[in-house]
Design a protein that fits this description.
single chain; mainly beta; four-stranded antiparallel beta sheet; three-stranded antiparallel beta sheet; 14% helix
């Protein structure tokens, strides 16, 4: 098999060991999945029901602390690998607020459902002519890695970019994400992929366990106006 697409994000920006443990569990559940042509990958189907620990989350319009913190970094990293592989994204949902570990518009939140909130999944389809292998793992250098391999290379070259459209306290922060796909020199798609409006996070609740954070080394968005309150910026 050949590599169709890959992506990497940093998790050492958050020193909470529970976050790393949760990512290891979720990445391990995803790693090794084989999709036949036309088969749809579901992140939630593979990762629900595992023994997750409490870590920081984005929930209820702010920063929370709940079991499963870190799963969205696993789904977001894999989402971008699927984008670069040229596969069809069936379902992708943005987070409430801008994240420190991935550029706005590239994220893909997940939620198993509950508390009156419907399930949010990250799904993509194997649109190639052969089997596809999904790989995802946490390495010893502090990076979360996602890679998609295929029996039949698509020949597609994918470029992704996003840019801020506006920021307003009353309307939120709007970002536009663009994608360009070429094959054998022919442009198959070049335009707007989606727009997302992110909110502002309130202060971290008092009494929440505090772990030292820093600016991500790759994949993050070190914007001084970042309202997550998770990572220090220069």
């Amino acid at each position: 098999m050949e590599v169709l697409g890959e992506y990497q994000t940093d998790f050492l920006w958050d020193s909470n060991p529970s976050r790393k443990g949760n990512m290891n569990l979720a990445a391990g559940a995803v790693d090794g999945t084989v999709l036949e042509p036309g088969e749809v990958f579901s992140f939630n189907d593979l990762t629900r029901g595992l023994d997750y620990e409490a870590a920081k989350t984005f929930s209820d319009g702010g920063v929370g602390y709940a079991n499963g913190g870190g799963l969205c970094q696993v789904s977001s990293t894999l989402h971008m690998a699927a984008q670069y592989a040229g596969l069809e994204i069936v379902e992708r949902n943005p987070h409430y607020a801008v994240l420190p570990y991935i550029r706005p518009g590239f994220d893909a939140t997940v939620w198993f459902g509950g508390d009156g909130i419907p399930e949010l999944d990250m799904r993509f389809e194997n649109t190639t002519g052969g089997d596809v292998l999904v790989r995802e793992w946490v390495d010893e250098k502090g990076f979360l890695n996602a890679r998609i391999l295929g029996e039949e290379p698509t020949g597609k070259e994918v470029e992704m970019r996003s840019e801020k459209v506006f920021e307003d306290p009353a309307r939120g922060i709007k970002w536009a994400t663009y994608k360009k796909v070429t094959k054998d020199g022919e442009v198959l798609f070049d335009g707007l992929l989606h727009t997302d409006v992110y909110g502002y996070n309130p202060p971290v609740p008092e009494g929440m366990p505090h772990y030292e954070t820093n600016k991500p080394r790759v994949g993050g968005w070190p914007d001084p106006t970042n309202t997550t309150g998770w990572a220090e910026t220069e």
